[in-house]
Amino acid sequence: MKAIWSGKKTLALLGMALFVLGLTVPASAARQLLQVDGSTTVGPIGDAFAEAFSELYPDCSITVKKTGSGDGAAALVDGRCDIAMMSRFMKEKEFRQAVEKGVFPVAHVVAMDGVCIVVHPSNPVAALTAEQIRKIYKGELTNWKQVGGADMPIVPISRDTSSGTYETFHELVMNKEKMAENVEYVNSNPQSHSRVRSTEGAIGYVGIGFLDRYVKAIKVDNVMPSRSTIAKGIYPVSRPLFLFTNGYPKLGSMAHAFCAFYLTEKGQEIVEDKGFVPLTEY
Amino acid sequence: MKKRSDHSMQTDAAAGFSRPLRLSAGQDLRGYLTGRAARTLLFITAFVSVAAVLLIFVFVVREAVPFFKSTDAAASLSRLKEFLTRTQWFPEHEAHPEYGVLAIIVGSLYVTVVSLLIAVPIGLLAAVFLSDIASFKVRQICKPVIEILAAIPSVAYGVFAVMVAAPWLQKHLGFTTGTNALNASLILSIMALPTILSVAEDSLSAVGRDIRQASYGLGATRAETMIRVVIPAAGSGILAAVILGMMRAIGETMVVWMASGNAAQIPSPWWDLSQSVRTMTATIAGELGEVPKGTTHYHSLFAIGFLLLIFTFTLNLISESFLSRVKRRQR
Lengths: 282, 331
Prior knowledge:
Chain A is an alpha/beta fold. Chain A has ten helices and eleven strands. Chain A starts with a helix and ends in a 9-residue tail after the last helix.
């Protein structure tokens, strides 16, 4: 009996200590704190913006977490972040949850991202239709000779089903149809790149920032992925990248500056530097 | 001389009893409270880990139950049946999601069994070498080095699997894809090796010298002693070592996520190691990050987690019972 009581007391003390800590930390830093959370695809932009901000506004502190588009949306809804980075628009369910909790998501498009279909550099195939790519991932085409290549089995490589890149590909190329069982999954753009680079029969997809001479981008529906075809939306597998805020941020606030930063010269440089395509032509 | 040392011993002994035997009420209370406080503190510290296990269990079950919960019992049952017997895993599909994890369970067991087929013989032979054949010096060097294997972070193994092992398998064995069941099993076997080796070595060493010498005394050779006497005597410990290695392999996440290819399929023909497989741990790790909270997909991942918990709990119980048998024998 006595042991339980003192256990409770200890717990209460611990709780009080945590409570006091919780009170003091935000209070001391509340003035210039900006929490950014969300997509790992938009993450590099968020990081670089935050870094640029630390020079421009030395007394503000920005934390950027990269947990994924879904987590970002959840964090915005729960009030755990001020800005959610997302590589897709909010799903109906997320939007509804937000409105129910009195959060009104506003989208800011900061850049365009193209999902490039890549093959091994030694592969003679240089163009596929979206239809053919879809059939490859559905397991209906299994050998490169069926699409005009060498006699070699196709190794389809996909990003993990929870990534924003996957969702873009799944929606724009697969028409939301199910992939075959033999499709391999990798959990990052660099890994996708390295798998295609080292596997002769592989086909995969990566963001435009991950194109280099070790993998070969192919034309989709006769359009080569490039900065201009992606920015104009001619390339079939391109998508906008979003920042979401609760309502339009108050003019002159740190959040507003952050969401409008892509319009500045520095912001556009960052977007391009991180391998994405700026929306604005300059 | 002698007298003096006797005398000093006496005073030393007396010093131990110099504390007054009767305490004042305040001292008594203070002693009582300090004792109680220390007891409580120690109890809480010990309880934290027990509570952690319980809370994990409760949490996983709580999040897994909504997956099976449905309007009526028949629907719940068919959900459970789909979960355990179907191989189609398309939880994120909007119109027609499918939640069959059979291929994923098979994938987990597949890489675990293959990795054990590699790691157990090597681990046992090495344990025999270290416990009975190697000189003291060799053993002193080898054991810590092997234990370093266990300290390498699994993501390092994963990078090795993707960057080195996968291209190597493609180039030299002619596999169409290098991230496959064989790759994952090879890396897992390296990771399970230190566990198997050190537990097996401990149980081999625990078989007493008297038993070995009795065997030699009866005219048995070293090999006969090892195979017929020592290994059977250490049997429970060796089994425990194998099971601990199995738990290491089945619970490993990062390496299988990177090395196995993650294709949710049962290899056909079943012995074809060059095909990609997907494990339970990799599925959870890969999908939990972005799944919208509270959806069926979210709960299905916890259902997989629950299955995994059952597997490891069972394995843990079995290995505990074998290890306690070893301890009883030592006594």
